[in-house]
Amino acid sequence: RVGVGMFANRALRARVSASNPLARASRASRTRRTSAVVVVAASNGDDGDEDATLERRRRALDARTMDAMLGKTTESVNDCSHAERPRRAVVRARAVGVAGACVVAGALGGGWTSVRKPPTPAPAHASASASFEDRLNNARSNGMYVAQRVFGWPLYGKVFMIMAAMVPLVLAAAAVYRHVSEEEWGASIAKTFYWLNDVPGADSTAEENWKSVVVAQLIVFCGMFTFAILIGVVSDEIASKVDEVKTGNSKVFEQNHTVILNWNEQLIPLLKQVAVAKSEGIGFERPVVLLANRDKEEMDATIEDELQDSPPLTVVTRSGQAHNAEDLDRVNAWVAERVVVLHDDGENEDTVESQKAAAVLNLRSGGGITGGRGPNVIVQSPTRRSEIDDGVALAVDLTEKEGNKHGEFCVVNGTGELSKLKAYSIMQPGGSKLFEDLMLQSNDSSEFYTYSHPSLAGKTFQEAWRMFNTTTLVGITNAEGMILGPSETDIIGPSGAVIVVADNKSTIEADIAKRKGSNKNENIPPPGSQHLTMLRCPVRMPAPRKVVMLGWNEESSSVLEDMLVLAPPGSSITLINNYELDKSILKGNTNCNVKHVAMDAQKRATLEQNRVHEAGAVLIMPPTDSDDATQDSHALSSIMQVAYLSKRADTGHAPHIVSELSSEVAKRVAEDMYAGIGTVDVILHDNLIGGALLQVSANTKLAGLFDYLLEKQGKELYMRMYNEFVTENDAEVYWGTICERARERDEIALGIMRADGELAISPRKDKRVRLNPGDQVVVLAEDWWTPTSVKAKQS
Description:
Number of helices: 28
Strand content: 5-15%
Radius of gyration: 47 Å
Mean pLDDT: 79
Oligomer: single chain
Strand order of the largest sheet: 3-2-1-4-5-6
Low-confidence stretches: 1-48, 68-86, 98-120, 122-126, 791-795
Structural class: alpha/beta
Shape: elongated
C-alpha cells in the first residue's frame, strides 16, 4: 500500500503540474507535506487511516491547484479579463512567426553550421569581418546547393516545397496583419494567403487604417515574388515536357504507315511528292515516319521549313540508324505499309550498301517474327550493281524462306545520275519537261498507273488499247512479266493487269466502265486502215547536231557516251574545259566527232573565241566537288554569258541550253534570263528522282518501268516531227487516228509537244487535233533514228 500510494502520489503531482502551471510554484512545500503523510501512514500500518491521509493531502493543496485537478480550469480562465486575451494571442502568433522564420532560415542557411568548407588554417592577421564573410559565402553556397536539389525534384515535389515554405510566411504575415487590423485569426490568414498568391478577387486596397494598408501592400509585394516562383516552376516544367515530346525518341505507335530510312538530297522532294499524292487521294493517308542518323530537332526544323508551301502532311522523325533492329522497332517498321530505303549521303559507298543490305535483312526477317505480312520494301540504288557486289539482293535471297510472309520488294536503279536525260534533252529540246510531266505527281500532269480488270484478261494489246478513250495504254503484264510497248499480238495475262498513262486512276476506271468490255471505238480507225497514209508520210533523218559541252565533272563521260549513241550522222561535240582527258574519250564514232578545247569554260573570252553562241545546243556541266549553291551559280553564270553573246550577235539564233540545277528558284532565274533569246531545259535531278520513288512507293510494279526509262536499255520516249504522222491534206484529225498511225510503226503515241513548248500528254482519242510545223508527237519506241532503224521503218 505504501508503494501504491507513492506511485499514485507521483502521478498526481505530474497531472497537477501538466494541468495548471500555478501548481508548480508550491511543488517543494507539497512534496514535504506529502512525504510526511506517507511516513505517518507507514508507521501506523493501519489500512483504515488511508482515507484520512488522502484527505489531509487534499487540504494541503491550495484551492487553485485543486480546481485544476478536478477539471475546473474553465472558470479560472474565464476569470481572466477580456483585455488579456488579445495580448496572449499576439504573443502566440509572434512565437509562431518567429518559429516559421527560423525553419526557413535553417533550411536555406544551414551552411553556417552543417555544410561548411574544410577548415583551413586562418592567417594570423585574419579579422572578424573576413570570418563573417566566409560564413556568409558558405551559407550562400549551401543555399544554392539546397535550391538545386529541390529544383531537381519532380513537379509535385517542387510545388510541395514551395507551399511548405509559404506556410510560415503566411502565418507570420497574418500575425502582423492581425496585430495592426484587429481582425480574427481566420480572416487574417485567409487574406494573407489570397494576397500572397494573387488570388482573383482579393482586394488589398480596401483597408481602413494606414497601418493595415501598408502591411497589405507589403504582403502583396512579397506575393509577387512567391507567386512568380510558383508560376515559373510550373511553366518551366510544362516547357520541359513539351521539349521532351518534341525532341524525344520514343517508339512510334503507328500501323500501315510509311517509313523512310536515311536522309539524302532526294528526301525533301520525295516528301513533297507524298504530300501531293495524299492530297489527290492516292494513298499515304497514314503519317510518314522518318528514321535517319541526324539530330531530331534539325530534321524537324528542315522539314517544317521545306514543306510549308506543300499540302498538309504529317511527318514524324526519329534519330537512329536504318540498319539497327532496335531503331527499326522504334519506328514500328514491321507493321508499316511500305518502307523506302534511301541511299544515305556522306558515307563510304561500300558501307552504305552493306547498311542497306542489313536494313533489308532486318525488315524481311521481321515479317516472319511478327507473324504477319511484312511491309513493301523499296530500295534506292544510284547505280546498278554487279551480282557479286549486290548485298541487297543477297539479303533478299537469304530471307526467302517458307512460312515468311513478305511484302513486295523492288529496287529503283539509276537514281545517281540522269546522264541519259541530259543527252536526250540536248538532242531533243523539251525532253526534261516531258520526263517531269510523267514522273512528278501533280494535278496538272499525267502519270503512270497500273490497273487490273477482268474484262482485259486474255485480250491482245491491239484489242485492249482501243478500250481506253481518255487514257493511254502503254504496257501489259503476262507470264513473261511486264512488257512496255508490246506488239499488237501480245496477250494480257489472266489478272488483266496493264500499265496506263492517265491524269488519275478514276479516269481509267471510267474508261473501262463505259466500254463494258467492248473495244469498238468510232474515233479510232480499224487496224491496218492507216497503212497507205503512213507510206505517204516520209521518215526523216534528224538534222546533224552541233553540241558544245562547257565544263567537266564525274558524270560527263557518261553523258558524252549517251550523246554519241543518239547523235545523227554529221554531228559534232566540242568539249571545253581545263582538264586533261583520256584520248579514248575523244574517239567519237561514225556519226559524230569529238573535239577537246583546253580552255577555261567560265570566261567569256573562251566562249566568244569558240563561237559557242553559234552552236545548236550547249550542255553545262559544273564541277560536282562543291555544294549545290556553288554549282547553281556556276551554271547560271554560263547561261548568262551565252545569253549575252547570243543577244549581241543579233542573228536570230541562240543555242538550246541544257543544265542541271538544284532548286526551283534557280530554275526560274535561268528561264527568265534566257526568255526571248532561246530555249532552255533545266533538269531538277532531285525532283525527278523523288517523283520516281513516290510512284514506285505507291505501286511497286512501276519499278521496272522506270528502269526502262532511266537506264540505257529498253523502250524509250522520243519525239517525232509532225509531218511523220500527217499529210498535207490533213487539216484536223482525231487523236485516235494519230494513235493508230503510230501503231503502224509499232510505236505508241503518248502526246504532243507544241512548237512553243506546250505539252499535252494522253489527249482524248475523240478530240480533233491539228499538227503544225514545229510540233512533235511524243512516242514510246525502241530507239531513236539511226541509219539501220530508218531503213527498217521505211521497208
